[in-house]
Amino acid sequence: MDKERKLLQQxxxxxxxxxxxxxxxxxxxxxxxxxxxxxxSAESYFRFLSGILLGIGLCFWxxxxxxxxKTNRFRILTLLVVVGGLGRLVGxxxxxxxxxxxxxxxxxxxxVTPVLxxxxxxxxxxxxxxYGVA
Length: 134
Prior knowledge:
- With 134 residues, the protein is mostly helical.
- It contains 5 helices and no strands.
- The mean pLDDT is 94.
- The chain crosses the membrane at residues 12-33, 45-64, 76-94, 100-119.
- InterPro entries: DUF4345, TonB_box_CS.
């Protein structure tokens, strides 16, 4: 069980680098990555959403120590990511195919994160069974 827990911790720590890095970049540089010129308000909103992405990544990192007992936090974070991914999916159907990186984000949001949540639940349940905690 400890080996699986450590593997889950390592996986979450590595995957959370993505929202932390992308969110931090968005906060610092705004729309510069896309090269699009947008209004000051749109730029502000982009930086706000980038800050939320950064925060979600940091919160996922906060689950790594003691991941086997942080099920509620992990599930709330997963819900936020999946809802965001569903929003991106709606946009895909309404406006067309986004860039390769956005498709990658969609994959992380709607497939990888829910799988990690199921894995975290498995580890938490095994921990509860082994140590008699609920």
